[in-house]
Amino acid sequence: MEKLVAVYWGTSIDSGFVKNILEMDGINAFLRDEAIGILAPWYITPDWKSAVKVIVPESQSEKAIQLMKDYFVYPIAPRSVLPKALTYCFVALLIISLVCGGF
User: What DSSP letter does each residue of 17-77 carry, written as one string?
Assistant: First the structure.
């Protein structure tokens, strides 16, 4: 059984985001302490912003760390995701506007 190592610590949302990015590049990533990190993050760490960990197999850890360094504009958000996220937000607002008859 291969050893798992933590490559990222953050909030549930941030860690989930990092996990998805790693998985899109073929890295097996998992979240540790997700439930308790949402419900009671202070139970895990005094810094509630780093309660949920992204873990990967040790053999893929260097690739994962390099991918995060290449992909992120530290500490904000990934370069290629921001335009897509803004587009999705605009589409969601448009749909809500159409369904609800406006704001």
Answer: HHHHHHHHTT---EEESHHHHHH-HHHH-SSGGG-EEEEEEGGGHHHHHHHHHHHB-TTS-
